[in-house]
Specification:
Elements lengths: L6 H8 L5 H29 L4 H17 L2 H8 L9 H12 L7 H9 L22 E2 L11 H16 L19 H8 L4 H4 E3 L3 H12 L8 E5 L4 H13 L4 H4 E4 L9 H10 L4 E7 L11 H17 L6 E5 L11 H4 L3 E4 L14 E4 L49 H16 L2 H22 L19 E4 L12 E6 L35 H10 L2 E2 L1 E3 L3 E4 L8 H19 L1
Parallel strand pairs: 1-11, 3-4, 3-5, 5-6, 6-7
Antiparallel strand pairs: 2-8, 7-8, 9-10, 10-13, 12-13
């Protein structure tokens, strides 16, 4: 054990402590770290070899056959850059199947080939995968709500506990994450994900999402008589709505007059031209625009760059007239770690996000903020709420306990209280894993393929419309699903949102086209029938869960599924569609 023990064990045992209780606590903490590291290694091995040797051998032979098909041409297709103009995700999937000589993308063979050639496949082993009651791994498709835990999080968190046990208050100034400035170890990692120019100036880790929105609005929402409006999108996450309305009320204005919402169109989606039109129409009344970068319910990705450009152009014109600007903020909780972001280049005034969805840091973990560098030193124009952690440290006078407030420039100046180092360790572990995978650019590429593959399977199996009993010999009723997420890949992230609908009273006509991607019309229109009723999304959620598939239901009638590129596979997607088809059959009876 002494020879195999990790450094943290040996270091803990080598500590020369005076009191026996300290020795016991330190040794116990270090032992726990070592035990978890051993269990982690054992868990990885168990996950990989959970199947019987017979099945494992069969898979090995199948992979050998698939490897023989991976020629240079196929590698070029798999590694090509995906753009709407050059190579769409649909084309990539079709080309892979054609070059590999696989007749259908809806086959176990095709999914296995995509997984075999996936550049990110090794990262699945870096996560703790929840198990179903039958002993198999769950098909976990709820990274949009709570990401899975990186196995390295064990070590990171327990290292901080061991340091606390061994050093006490001295932990503030020692180790890889000195607690007095542990959040500063995250800014470079966060800046890469959100597209900040100067990490130390534009990014800070603190608090939780809605708290940070309030902190930012306390500075950047400066209402005046007649100009106190906040514009958001209808269907925003409820907490954003609560926060915005309460800010209006807090400043003594009436939310019924100064709270503006941009409504979706009949397709259920927001249209950027409607947002721009609403900003222009209410310019004289607006002080702030606050939008969700990716809608939590539909999964729609807004054109954040285009909206920011429109606001900046309007502000330039307003400045020429001597009028104040409208500030723009984004809630990027469902965008960060999901889609590429360039907040600095887009000119966004501020943004806030959580870290427990696509950043995989754990429930309620440490959040982050972005403040554009042009606001680095304008606290006199946009006064912040102050606290002692907003005073810089090393170098800086934070621990000099001065009466005057010496604010750190930029985003760091918004900090009020010290950061929990256990949370910082969680965020650090997850962001380092994302960096090792190549960042969001790398994960976005796989994400486009995963969601396109999922949508294609739904269409090819004709699950995108209900089926009526009697439409053919031996045909039984089956529910269908309506995709409420945009069908254009660039307008969505990892998440697809599904509305389950019951069969109509009459038979469904055949599909319009053999090619499921030839018709760009809404999936809701495919089948040409009016759904009879909306089936409970809770029923579908529970049915899928009983079959080992984890999705989540959201009011009023949506089931969300998000194949996350770091830990989900193409085999996961196909298995989900298998289980979904079974569930829709059961719901249709």
């Amino acid at each position: 054990q002494a020879c195999c023990a990790p450094p943290c064990w040996r270091a803990g045992m080598a500590l020369r402590l005076q009191r026996p209780v300290e020795l016991v606590v330190s040794a116990a903490a270090s032992a726990v770290v070592a035990a978890v590291q051993c269990l982690t290694s054992a868990a990885r091995y168990t996950f990989r070899t959970a199947r019987s040797y017979k099945v494992y051998a069969a898979l090995a032979f199948k992979q050998l056959g698939l490897r023989l098909r991976v020629n240079s041409k196929l590698q070029d297709i798999i590694r090509c850059k995906i753009t709407d103009e050059v190579s769409s995700p649909t084309e990539v999937l079709s080309n892979v199947a054609a070059v590999a000589g696989i007749d259908s993308v809806d086959s176990e063979e095709f999914a296995a080939l995509m997984d075999l050639t996936d550049p990110l496949r090794r990262f699945r082993r870096e996560f703790a995968l929840p198990m179903h009651s039958d002993g198999t791994e769950q098909v976990y498709l709820t990274g949009h709500s709570l990401g899975l835990m990186p196995l390295s999080t064990f070590t990171g968190v327990l290292a901080e506990l061991a340091k606390w046990a061994a050093k006490g208050v001295g932990g503030h100034f020692t180790g890889e994450l000195p607690w007095a400035q542990c959040e500063e170890k995250l800014t470079d990692l966060m800046a890469e994900v959100v597209g900040a120019k100067d990490p130390a100036l534009e990014v800070a880790a603190m608090n939780s999402l809605t708290v940070n929105l309030h902190m930012l609005m306390a500075a950047f929402y400066r209402p005046t008589k007649g100009r106190a409006g906040i514009l958001i999108e209808a269907g925003a996450f409820p907490s954003d709505r609560y926060a915005a309305r309460s800010q209006i009320l807090h400043h003594g204005f009436d939310p019924e007059i100064f709270f503006f919402e941009v409504q979706p169109r009949e397709d259920g989606l927001l249209h950027e031209e409607d947002i721009k039109r609403a900003i222009d129409a209410n310019r004289s009344k607006l002080a702030l625009v606050l939008l969700g970068g990716v809608n939590y319910l539909t999964g729609q990705v807004l054109d954040m760059a285009g909206i920011a450009q429109h606001v900046a152009l309007g502000n330039a014109q307003a400045a020429a007239r001597g009028e104040p600007p409208i500030l723009l903020g984004y809630d990027i909780a469902h965008a960060v770690g999901n889609v590429p972001l360039q907040l600095h280049d887009w000119g966004v005034d501020f943004a806030a996000w959580c870290s427990y969805k696509y950043l995989n840091s754990g429930a309620g973990c440490l959040a982050g903020i972005f403040v554009h560098e042009r606001h680095a030193s304008d606290g006199d124009v946009y006064p912040r709420l102050n606290g002692w952690w907003g005073v810089p440290f090393n170098p800086g006078p934070r621990f000099q306990m001065r009466h005057g407030f010496d604010a750190a420039p930029g985003a760091a100046g918004f900090a009020c209280s010290n950061v929990n180092p256990l949370m910082a360790a969680c965020v650090k572990s997850s962001l380092e894993l994302l960096r090792a995978a190549g960042g969001v650019d790398a994960t976005r590429r796989k994400s486009l393929l995963l969601t396109t593959y999922l949508e294609r399977l739904l269409r090819e199996r004709q699950l995108t419309s209900p089926r009526v009993a009697g439409a053919g010999a031996g045909v039984t009723s089956r529910c269908g699903v309506v995709l409420t997420t945009p069908t254009e890949p660039h307008r969505r992230g990892c998440q697809l949102s599904l509305r389950v609908v019951a069969p109509a009273s009459g038979p469904s006509p055949p599909p319009k086209s053999k090619n499921p991607f030839e018709d760009d019309s809404s999936i809701a229109a495919i089948g040409g029938i009016e759904p009879q009723k909306v089936v409970s999304m809770r029923e579908l959620e529970l049915l899928l869960e009983s079959k080992g598939v984890v999705t989540d239901a959201r009011e009023p009638d949506i089931v969300r599924a998000a194949p996350v590129p770091l830990y989900n596979s193409f085999a996961d997607v196909r298995l989900f569609v298998d289980r979904l088809e079974e569930s829709l059959e059961e719901l249709g009876k």
